[in-house]
Amino acid sequence: MAEFIQLDAALYPTLTMRFDNQDVIEQAISGWTKQYSADGIAEMLQAKGIEAVPVANFADLYLADKQLQQRQHFLQYTRPITGISVYERNGFRLSDSPAGFACHAPTLGENTDEILTHMLGYSSEDVAQFRNNGAIE
Questions:
Q1: Measured between alpha carbons, how far is 118 from 127 in angstroms, rounded to an integer?
Q2: 117: three-class secondary structure by DSSP
Q3: How many domains does the chain have?
Q4: Which residues lie across from 84 on neighbouring strands?
Q5: Shortest CA distance to 29 belongs to which of 68, 2, 50?
Q6: Which helix (H) or strand (E) holds 20?
């Protein structure tokens, strides 16, 4: 690494010396990294046998990663209040078990009637009474 950043590694042979001079070392690394792209740095380090990959944020993956786009890794659903939201699918696919989401994440109370009637067995009249009594909105 020292050869990349033109830093004399012999000046900092121990962990203590590197720690004591971390500001100088970090400044040298910062100056070197500003000259290249993250992908370029990763390729240079990998060519020297150093494991390195660029750190990617969500925007990097969502907007620029062609493989994830091809695999339809990100799905968009429109939520009633917040509008379009992006959802990330599982990183793996099973041929007999489709992965992903059937719909957007529910808003607070969006599925109350369905849960009360279909899952918990209350009648529509019960749900109406809960609303009238202020138990649910």
A1: 11
A2: helix
A3: 2
A4: 78
A5: 2
A6: helix 15-20
17: amino acid identity, one letter? M
Neighbours of 32 (CB within 10 A): 15
Structure tokens, 107: 């808003």
Residue 123 has pLDDT above 90, yes or no: yes
Task: Give the CA distances from residue 26 to residues 41, 43, 63, in Å, rounded to whole numbers and listed in that order.
Answer: 16, 20, 30
SS3 state at 97? strand
User: Does the residue 37 lie in any domain?
Assistant: yes
Domain presence at residue 127: yes
pTM for the model stands at 0.49
| E strand or H helix that includes residue 132 | helix 124-132
How many C-beta atoms surround the C-beta of residue 95 within 10 A?
5
Best CA proximity match to 127, nearest among 137, 67, 96, 12: 137
Contact 67, 60 (CB under 8 A): no
CA distance 67 to 64: 9
pLDDT per residue as tens digits for the range 70-84:
988 888 888 888 899
Residue 17 is part of which domain span? Answer: 2-47
